[in-house]
Phytanoyl-CoA dioxygenase (Triparma strigata), 338 residues
Amino acid sequence: MKFLLLLLLLIASPLYTQTFAPPLSRPLKNSGLRNSVSPDAAGLLYADQESGLINQASLEGTFMKPPKSLLPLKTGTVKSGSGFGGGKETLFKERGRAIQKVLKKDGVVRIDGVLNKDTCAELRSWVLREADLRRSEVDSGTASISDHFSDVLLRKNRCDLRLPLSPLVETCVSGMTDPSTDLGYLLHSTLGPTSPLHELASMISYPSSSRQTAHPDTPYNSGIPLLTIFVALQDVDITMGPTTFLPGTNKSDKHAKFQSDHDNFLKGSKTVCAELKAGDCSCFDSRTIHLGGANLSEVERAMFYVSFRNPEFVAVGNPPSIKPELEGKFALEDCSRM
Ligand SMILES: O=C(O)CCC(=O)C(=O)O
């Protein structure tokens, strides 16, 4: 449904002019189109639109402000996960509240060291091999795309690989959701322990992938629909097209302007980019407008990502990137006990 809506918008709106009205959310994920026309026809229609999106995205790149670096908070030195006792616990909670405040205001916050570098290197090699393997299965007809991949905006040289809950992935999820760490505390205190694991995937942008158009992952809503965590599996520098966020765009007036006066809105918005070291993450509210950059380097940019859904939302308007057998099976509290 959403994809049909996107197509209508694309056909009806002059992509090459300044009046492009962007669709909401990651518009091409699990397109409903697959259900209504053959995958081949969907592919052809998409290919037709992709060049328009590429043009729109590179145009946006010419007039948007150059990004500053997304920086971690400098608030005290309590080591997360080091155990509590009196002052340490107070400091930890104070820092947790400070992180939560930034998330509320900017819609995105950086937290460093959520996975260790060896784990990142191991997971990175594994996801790159897994993506190649699954792609060859799809090419040979032994698997369908949706068995392993979700639709992604600007899919050429980019993929969104759904991950199995392997022991390695389980270790990562469990570490990231441990409530005695900054990230785990943020997730628990913002969404609560019963929030469902919504997505479990890896976003890989290969060399020569193009810049995405700016987009939120979910339409505006008065509560946070999803919190998404993107962890860098290798150091990400500016040439690799890090995620760029528009801080403060998790608000209703910003969404309204994004829709009604798109290009001027983008021209006037601040941008920050997630030039992360391996193991660092950006954690963002799905309403926050962002984009994946063009990968101009010769290195794959592999990100491990999970998202948790606010339990007050039944649906968020964005089909999840998760293996179907894992969908709805785990809450945040289960993840932290893995
Ligand atoms: O590649 C990234 O860093 C972000 C990707 C993204 O926002 C998307 O595909 O919706």
Summary: The two ends are 36 Å apart (CA to CA). The CA atoms of residues 30 and 146 lie 8 Å apart. The chain has one domain: 67-336.
